[in-house]
Amino acid sequence: MTSASVLSGRHVLLTGGTGFVGRHVLPVLLAAGARVTCLVRATSRTAHLPTAVNLVEADLRTGQGLAAAVEGKDIVIHMAALLFGLGWQDYLAANVLAAEHLARALAQKRARCLLMSSLAATGPCGQAPGVGDDAVPAPVSAYGWSKLLAEQTLAAALGERLVVLRPPIIYGSGDKGLLPMFRGVARGLAVSPGLGREFPVSAVHADDMARAVLCACRPQAHGVYHCNDGQVYTMSHLCRAMSRAVAQALGRPLRPLHCLHMPLPVLAFTAGLSSALGKLIHACGRQLTGRGLHRAPEWNLDKYREARQAGWLSDGSRMCAELGFEPQVGLDAGMLEAAQGYVREGWL
């Protein structure tokens, strides 16, 4: 039985479908024959969603509407998450509380749940092949801890009905997380954390991530799976691929790229400054409008806690062997797809 045939005619609820990875996952689910319902908020932008997708309003932060949203569903794919927060409380409120509400809604149902977690929940590793699926979790950031707590919350309620994916860096069109790096290399400047060292990382393109989601919906899927494209990169390597992609997407000659290996104390200072400024703007915004920041800064102290590690490598071989996952997007092709998407959106 193929991954696609597993979903034919099945009712799937997707959270995070309006986000970056969700835009790549939705077409794959529909092509596999799934009947997809996308969970949205009243403020969600849904005009870009495929017409075949059903919409249901619910609030993961309060749990309102979740019981009705999961009714009659065969599989719930939970991808909605907060990636950038101002502090621990932001990640706990967005990621862990959402998992708690979803666990309650699914506790008495028969639906399986696929959780999009993160390599940050496992912890860092600077040596190939990287952390395996049986590694003891050791998160180093508030974000990583919130993803691990979300896993544990859902596992306590669902047991074997829960499957967890822990991807590394996900890149592709629509991603705003790596957009500052693309803009930097467009100007000929890249930054790698740590003086006199390389920073090894695993990565996966969003289209391959969508294929991984499809594979993880197979009935034999169980436990935790790390997934990536099977390669080991350094941050310098990624930035050079970005530079080539930007030049091709913009139709201009390749510019010389200067990769700065930034000392960790300098990165710590800039992260602290960015975090403090973000909190100040948030406080002022709340005082003036009652709402605060729309989005926390991408570079902050929590991301510095991840950047100061030896590296972020994972071993995705078990998923390939058990579920037949085969990455198809190489780094150069994937970076070009991302850069072309940025150009279409007017972001680059």
What does this structure look like?
By secondary structure, the protein is of the alpha/beta class. It has a domain at 3-176 and 203-229 and 314-331: NAD(P)-binding Rossmann-like Domain (Rossmann fold), CATH 3.40.50.720. The protein is 43% helix and 15% strand. It has helices at residues 3-7, 20-31, 66-70, 88-106, 142-158, 179-186, 206-216, 235-250, 264-289, 301-307, 317-323, 331-345, and strands at residues 11-15, 35-40, 54-57, 75-78, 112-116, 162-166, 169-171, 189-193, 200-201, 203-205, 223-226, 233-234, 258-262. The protein has a 7-stranded parallel sheet, sandwiched between helices. Helix 4 (88-106) packs parallel to helix 5, helix 6 (179-186) packs across helix 8 (235-250) and helix 9 (264-289) packs antiparallel against helix 10. The longest helix is centred in the C-terminal third of the chain and has 26 residues, at 264-289. The mean pLDDT is 93.
Number of strands: 13
CATH topology of one domain: Rossmann fold
Low-pLDDT parts are none
The name of the CATH architecture of one domain is 3-Layer(aba) Sandwich
Distance between the termini: 42 Å
Backbone structural class:
alpha/beta
Range of strand content: 15-25%
Order of helices and strands: HEHEEHEHEHEEHEEEHEEHEHHHH
